[in-house]
Amino acid sequence: MSAPVAPASQETSAYERTERTTLTRHRERAHYDRELVHSILDAGYVCHLGFVRDGAPVVLPTLYGRIGERLYVHGSTGSRPLRAAGQTDVGLPVCVTVTHVDGLVLARSAFSHSLNYRSVVVHGTARPVTDEEEVKAALDALVDQVMPGRAADSRPASPKELAATAVLGIDLTEVSAKVRDAGPMDSEADLALPFWSGVVPLTTGYGAPVPADDLAPGIPVPGYLTAL
Amino acid sequence: MSAPVAPASQETSAYERTERTTLTRHRERAHYDRELVHSILDAGYVCHLGFVRDGAPVVLPTLYGRIGERLYVHGSTGSRPLRAAGQTDVGLPVCVTVTHVDGLVLARSAFSHSLNYRSVVVHGTARPVTDEEEVKAALDALVDQVMPGRAADSRPASPKELAATAVLGIDLTEVSAKVRDAGPMDSEADLALPFWSGVVPLTTGYGAPVPADDLAPGIPVPGYLTAL
Lengths: 228, 228
Fold this sequence. Notes:
Chains A, B: This is Nitroimidazol reductase NimA-like FMN-containing flavoprotein (Pyridoxamine 5'-phosphate oxidase superfamily). Two copies of one chain form a homodimer. By secondary structure, chain A is of the alpha+beta class.
């Protein structure tokens, strides 16, 4: 399954390619460069976490954070995947996927329609993080992934909250990115068809912050929000 | 696993709840209403498709379309999940998850940070669609899910393209939605903390359409794009 096809180490600039991170289609879109993978991961904060439960696949959206070559997800100590990861010595096999859609690619032919996107797929094993300092750093990373600067501008978890929270770590070893960033690719024969063709860029932005109903008076909107 | 806990049928307004569509956490966020589920599915076009390969989970982003109580995904006849779904009589067990993030929920406590979101999780079986009329309708649905009106304003698939494309159908039977749409939920003791608290709404929009480099002169931007 996962036999390496190229030698690599943690220190190289690329993840080693394995059979399951080798694309069968559109191989030109595959990338293994660490910096590119990190940039795609750092541009998001919601991943789709896949695991196997009773032989069937389960995919759940959840927050993540990255510190170096490790991803973190978290949840209640009572939640299913977090219980499952802690119940075995070998951890929980997972697939973590992060996707950003950048544009709609409208070709003349329905067949050639596509999206411009950046995605990362991580195959790995989720293991409970037990070191308290690492748990705290992971939780800070999760908050700062959503809003950089926020972890330092909120109350850190109490011992009781820490006890109720499970953090799982997933090492970034078997990883690939897939990127499409181009215009429509119609065949020569379709170029004369009378259909408009091009890319519709997608934009994501932030609306004006909405204060909590019970926000105490006199607390200003913090700089990391006004700067958005 | 999936024993129904409440009677329901295709004609009722709600999906029947099963053990695996019953949330273990935040049960107040769970919904089984068909109209709500359809509205969340129809608001997107990229799903995260999970399946099991050699015992390990795989999660891939892919386009989808919905017609009634069936979802469709497509791909090359040579791609892994599409081959896997066609190789068995029982189809391929899948989990299809669609997620929209609507806002960042910044609480006073790091622990109470959250997102406002709408998600749908479909547990089911992907089966190859073999009826040609259904294949064509599914491909139209996939294109129109990305851009309503586009299927009729592009060249339909040729027989050769149809032969190279596999379409999988997944019946909507075991389905749940999860929705959070509220402000921060800090505990009473945290309300006096000096941290700003509230929701940062997220917005998604469309940039100006970028014509293909080889677009023939005189083809106007279609109305479904100028109306965005």
